[in-house]
Amino acid sequence: MDNAEPSTSDGRKGRNKRKRDNAGAGYCGLTPEEVRNLSQYLMSSDEDEPEDPFADSGSEFIPSSEGESSEDDYLQVSEGEDNKHDSSQTPVLEPETAMDERMDIIRERTRLEIQWTDKEFIPQVFAFDSTNSGLRNVSLNDQSSKVDFFLSLLSENIMNVIAIETNRYAIQRDAPKWKSVDIPELYVFFAVTLLMTRVKKLNIKEYWTQDILLSTPVFGQTMSRNRYCEIHRYLHFANNEEVKPHNRLGKFGNILTVLKENFKSQFYPFEHLVIDESMVLFKGRLSFRQYIKTKRHRFGIKLYVLCDCETGIVLDFIV
After folding, report:
1. According to the 3-state scheme, what is the secondary structure of the chain?
2. Could you report the per-residue pLDDT of 89-124, keeping only the tens digit for each?
3. Number of folded domains in the chain?
4. Which residues form the PiggyBac transposable element-derived protein domain (predicted)?
5. Residue 174: which domain range?
């Protein structure tokens, strides 16, 4: 039939053709042929080929004035773009070229002349000057007592912090009939504790026993048993409300840091030092308690200690 309507497929093809034509008109007013020509020009690697004055998107070519140098004859870029061809600016290098030049400069500056020899290498040894080794605290000398040396390490500043935190913890726990502890009483408490390491008993209460065969009168004469046990129960070094949950040494606060500083400030070491591990006996509950069967105290807290070989004085330690 001559007057037959076009089929559905023919109509669809016509619509697709119109869409392609409309799409071609959407390249900033350029036809598809002009877009292809522009793409080929931009991808061209021939640097000697003169630039197309109409490469910009419809911008007008404005020639330079007569008084300007021929080196400044560049295209004027549209207002919305940066002037990448300004002769007053340093030309931008390609990334690979710039990287190569930087590497050449680095190699030139760091070039080392290494000469291999068969001679045995003998390192330079510096002579140790021991004139400053020994005590740094001028108030301590050969005539000083052991208590003087002890007080220089466990200073009153440390004892003051311990007294404050112990009283704070006793109040937090609502300790019945608690009497605030002070610095002198804390010194007595630690003195009694150190003496217990020399006099072995089965338990703490035996140090205050009245048994004629087991009694050690010095403990009862120095501090009562109930008071010692009370201080021992509430002894604290930091505020529990400020201790971070994942800090294993948070219960000590800054006591360990101050103690290390006191070690370093009181003594200049001699030439020979040693680093060794040490076990502090502890049988209680602790997440980082260790067991080393070769140690004298198999259970406890392991420390890495830096000591002076000549005097045995501890200079630093790591828990």
Report:
1. CCCCCCCHHHHHHHHHHHHHHHHHCCECCECHHHHHHHHHHHHCCCCCCCCCCCCCCCCCCCCCCCCCCHHHCCCCCCCCCCCCCCCCCCCCCCHHHHHHHHHHHHHHHCCCCCCCCCCCCCCCCCCCCCCCCEECCCCCCCCCCHHHHHHHHCCHHHHHHHHHHHHHHHHHCCCCCCCCCCHHHHHHHHHHHHHHCCCCCCCHHHHHCCCCCCCCHHHHHHCCHHHHHHHHHHCCCCCHHHCCCCCCCHHHCCHHHHHHHHHHHHEECCCCEEEEEEEEECCCCCCCCEECCCCCCCEEEEEEEEEECCCCCEEEEEC
2. 444 445 566 667 777 777 676 666 677 888 888 888
3. 3
4. 147-318
5. 146-242
